[in-house]
Backbone:
């Protein structure tokens, strides 16, 4: 039985009640009344403020409105094309004289410098020394700083050179326009014609034509203010002059495109620089130089070839690929059937990969995804199961691999139409008008059908570039014999590119070579048959056949990522905050959210430091870090990922900082940007000579017959102070009178 409960003694309870009721120090009636009054006032104030009372105030005058003034202090403001002054000096003069005096007499003005960030400034301290001008970011910061305050408008004094990185959070195009904020009144400083200037507008690299031994550099330059005076254009590789040309502009201010063919180091990164020697009359030399990085080729690219039957095409094609030191070829060739009626295959593969190919095609994603490109050559669509075709489509779209489909059997009847691979291919398969079109061998002197003809895109595409120039490439293709057959495929899909065409006996024109980007990867079709003629029916010294197939395999396989990849932004500048992303994936290229990623950064001087990565998204395998490399030059990023004790892979990425100076790109007054910012915000744009009109526009932007101002008392600082004061007074008096 539980023990009986103890009953409360009434006498003991009375003693306790009396003891607690008795104050520690006797209070007079006045003291007790004061404490009760303070407590009641505190509770009444809290209850009152919970009802959100407001006070009605008369409308404020325009003198109480704030006008933030943003002055561009980037390096481009040093240029002396503003009425004989530097741009920043012209902005200073405006603030000291007509514009500044008129604004300060009507509004409360606050001056800020706008460069790499936003900072309060004084007129006499403005200097054009900021590395870049993030005008859109500065406008966004001003709006945030004065949110909820009475702002008549924002005045911007700038040359319009917004060289901050685009940010989606700033609005469309990163222009800084915001229809919901105060209007922006932009004052353009400088000349819209700009100074005399020669500039390298851009330098880009094409896909390597073969083994990274030959790359085309596309250089775009412009000469403004010099008429058609010739100038020198040089290309340097790692500081050594490789080529120099004398360029004659077609007209003053017209862009010039030049192509330089260079051979980068296959084992080490190469920095190519295009430069124009500075003319004595040029005030800007920073834009005369641009650089681009060509990274080393990296590991061999693995290609899986699935061949429907042995033949000349298979032999010559795989032989051409096997001779490429940058490729690793695994092949599966169907030989026939065994006694049980099952297909048998001849497999040639690297160590550890042949077992997965004994049935003709990999059965698992991780077995297929070890390859960078897949070639389906002369194989009927019903050879594959639907699951295998879906896996091949994902190989291109998700893994980022390349796919090449060729051979008459691959396109016979309905071919791959209606299968998961149909959308991957660059041409339509369901609108064809015929089967295989054949030509006779003895019709070489006649206008031959199935003769390959390059399109304009094909003349410059890295797959078809078998000559040193587009003209030579065209001549070499025209000299090759006709194909024995060609499949009459449909037209290109949206976004696809036709590189070569052929003519059927009925006069129809059909694609022979077509490519497209699909998802993360690339795809290609070759509709011809007996391309081995380009090897057997030409001189033994002719290498067109080998170049074509090796370049096709290179183009398809090169972009395929590894399980661990590093991503960095393009065109970094010293001191610029950038994000480095590392993606960790497993063998099936699924994201690994619980990976451990170690990364290091090697600076141009050789110093190596650890990069601290954080998980960008708990559900993804992306890890990111923010960096701000201060020193220009070549950086190397190395990352290794593992899941537990199981390695996922490693990656290296080279990054070149300081390849271009965006601050001096097109040094003219950028009126288009300033007009767009003003228009999007409801403001107006004016040149410096008419800056005196801005105060009147601001005055008109302030409501003259505004409604009375409604102010919430709960948000007033004195409301919080009143409650604190009442509570503090009660506590102090209680302590003073001996109460606890």
Residues:
């Amino acid at each position: 039985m539980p023990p009986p409960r103890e009953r409360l003694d009434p006498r003991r309870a009375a003693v306790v009640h009396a003891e607690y009721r008795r104050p520690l120090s006797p209070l007079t009636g006045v003291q007790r009344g004061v404490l009760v009054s303070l407590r009641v006032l505190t509770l009444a104030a809290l209850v009152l403020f919970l009802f959100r009372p407001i006070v009605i105030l008369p409308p404020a005058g325009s003198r109480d409105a704030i006008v933030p003034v943003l002055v561009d202090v980037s390096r481009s403001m040093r240029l002396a094309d503003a009425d004989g002054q530097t741009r920043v000096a012209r902005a200073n003069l405006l603030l000291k004289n007509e514009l500044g005096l008129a604004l300060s007499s009507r509004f409360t003005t606050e001056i800020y410098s706008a460069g790499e960030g936003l900072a309060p400034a004084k007129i006499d301290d403005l200097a054009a020394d900021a590395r870049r001008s993030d005008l859109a970011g500065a406008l966004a910061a001003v709006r945030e700083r004065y949110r909820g305050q009475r702002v008549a408008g924002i005045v911007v004094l700038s040359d319009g050179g917004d060289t901050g990185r685009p940010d989606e959070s700033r609005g469309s195009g990163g222009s800084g326009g915001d229809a919901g904020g105060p209007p922006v009144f932009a004052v353009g400083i400088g000349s819209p014609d700009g100074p005399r200037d020669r500039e390298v507008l851009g330098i880009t690299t094409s896909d390597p034509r073969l083994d990274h031994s030959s790359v085309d550099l596309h250089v775009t330059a412009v000469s403004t203010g010099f008429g058609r005076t010739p100038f020198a254009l040089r290309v340097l590789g790692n500081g050594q002059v490789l080529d120099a040309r004398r360029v004659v502009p077609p007209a003053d201010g017209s862009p010039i495109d030049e192509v330089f063919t260079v051979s980068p180091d296959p084992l080490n990164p190469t920095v190519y620089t295009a430069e124009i020697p500075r003319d004595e009359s040029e005030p800007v030399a920073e834009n005369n130089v641009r650089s681009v990085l060509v990274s080393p080729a990296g590991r061999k690219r693995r290609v899986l070839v699935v061949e429907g039957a042995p033949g000349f095409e298979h032999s010559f094609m795989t032989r051409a690929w096997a001779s490429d030191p940058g490729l690793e070829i695994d092949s599966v060739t169907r030989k026939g059937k065994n006694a049980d009626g099952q297909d048998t295959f001849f497999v040639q593969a690297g160590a550890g990969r042949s077992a997965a190919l004994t049935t003709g095609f990999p059965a698992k994603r991780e077995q297929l995804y070890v390859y960078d490109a897949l070639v389906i050559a002369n194989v009927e669509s019903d050879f594959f199961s639907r699951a295998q075709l879906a896996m091949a489509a994902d190989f291109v779209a998700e893994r980022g691999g390349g796919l090449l489909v060729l051979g008459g059997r691959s396109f016979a009847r309905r071919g791959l139409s209606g299968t998961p691979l149909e959308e991957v291919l660059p041409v339509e398969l369901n609108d064809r008008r015929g089967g295989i079109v054949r030509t006779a061998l003895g019709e070489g002197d006649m206008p031959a059908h199935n003769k390959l003809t390059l399109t304009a895109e094909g003349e410059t595409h890295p797959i078809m570039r078998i000559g040193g120039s587009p003209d030579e490439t065209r001549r070499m293709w025209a000299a090759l014999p006709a194909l024995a057959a060609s499949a009459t495929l449909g037209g290109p899909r949206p976004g696809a590119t036709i590189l070569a065409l052929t003519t059927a006996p009925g006069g129809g024109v059909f694609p022979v070579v077509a490519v497209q980007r699909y998802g993360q990867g690339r795809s290609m079709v070759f509709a011809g048959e007996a391309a081995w003629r380009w090897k057997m029916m030409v001189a033994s010294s002719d290498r067109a056949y080998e170049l074509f197939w090796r370049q096709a395999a290179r183009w398809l396989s090169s972009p395929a990522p590894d399980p661990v990849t590093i991503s960095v932004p393009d065109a970094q500048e010293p001191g610029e905050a950038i994000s480095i992303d590392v993606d960790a994936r497993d063998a099936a290229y699924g994201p690994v959210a619980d990976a451990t990623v170690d990364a290091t950064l090697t600076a141009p001087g050789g110093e190596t430091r650890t990069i601290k990565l954080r998980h960008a998204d708990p559900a993804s395998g992306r890890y990111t870090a923010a960096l701000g490399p201060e020193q220009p030059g070549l950086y190397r990023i190395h990352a290794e990922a593992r899941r537990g004790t199981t390695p996922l892979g490693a990656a290296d990425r080279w990054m070149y900082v300081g390849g271009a100076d965006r601050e001096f790109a097109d040094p003219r007054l950028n009126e288009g940007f300033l007009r767009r910012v003003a228009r999007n915000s409801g403001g107006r744009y004016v040149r410096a000579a008419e800056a005196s009109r801005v105060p009147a526009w601001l005055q008109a932007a302030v409501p003259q017959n505004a409604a009375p101002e409604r102010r919430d008392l709960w948000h007033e600082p004195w409301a919080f102070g009143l409650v604190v004061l009442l509570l503090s007074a009660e506590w102090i008096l209680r302590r003073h009178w001996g109460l606890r």
